[in-house]
Design goal:
By secondary structure, the protein is of the alpha/beta class. It contains 14 helices and 12 strands. It has a 7-stranded mixed beta sheet. A 5-stranded mixed beta sheet has the order 8-9-12-11-10, covered by helices on one side.
Length: 390
Amino acid sequence: MTEEFATTCVHAGQEPDAGTGAVVPPIHLATTYAQESPGHNRGYEYSRTDNPTRHTLETVLGALEGGEHALSFASGLAAETTLLLALKPGDHVVTVDDLYGGTHRLFDRVLADHGITTTAVDARNPEEVARAWTPETVMCWIESPTNPLLKIMDIAKIADIVHAKGGLCVVDNTFATPVLQQPLALGADVVVHSATKYLGGHSDVVGGALITNDAKLAAKLRFLQNAVGAVPSPFDCWLLMRGIKTLALRVERQNASAAIIAAWLEHAPGVARVLYPGLPGHEGHEIVAALWKGRGGAMISFELVPDANCDVFFKTLRIITCAESLGAVESLIELPAAMTHGAMSQEQREALGITDHLVRLSVGIEEPEDLIDDLARALDAALHSTSQSG
């Protein structure tokens, strides 16, 4: 994190209100706007098309990711769906194999019915993207880190391959956040965010975002967004801006705590393996060490030993909350096989290594020692439970 980025989080697009001097941008709840005469407006006509509060948020989002064009949405999946509406039946997309469960469901159970096909590859080897490319392929969709196995991709190399093929490179940057990496600067064409997560950061607002430097694509996306109505409310936009003001501080704290907790988990009784990019043994450690300036992110996945009772583990936790979502000030923990990735078949999960004992932890801003004590107590209970159901 640089001082400049932290300042951007607080001030980008948010000058004091010209009319009142208010230092916080107002919430414009109006749904429609007076026109001087038909077709002659003051920049706004109807809030589905554009809204002053949403416009301010989009200025902030563009500044965070270094993008000229940003669009905000009612959810991360609304953003993804709008982007994918730019495709046509017969188009093919190469994706990473370890996708967020909701994105996998969107491709596998919604878009497939409309003639959009996908091939999932382990894009840690960028050549796998090239091998999966067909004459019908138009897009590569990656996450880095992935959800929930925290695989790390070389975004720049993948983008080069995709561009040589004439396709679009899309990067979901939800886990890393623009604090750690800015995919557009690495060659990506579009950045996707579930703004619900780190950008909002307080578990109180759902939102999504697309950011790009491609003016033609941005115009198409704005048309599609207006046509399908995938827009956030002004109040949700205001909440996201409020959350973004502390983004840099929160992510730095969460990264520092996650590094401490991951190192402890490596030697904790009851833990079979730890997946954390900040650990030297992680296959993507060299990439993140250079790109993220030594930080490892605030997401940790770890697998309990086979004889640990998962149900007891989760029920024993007192500080860490069992819940879907991530990136918030409070630490959240979940079992992907039963929660975020439940839409995948057991065979698909097992092929990827998403076992019934794999746990995903989103580290919050609590004291790391308190979180370790909570995990230690739950692991001990899980190991000594008489019921061994997972």
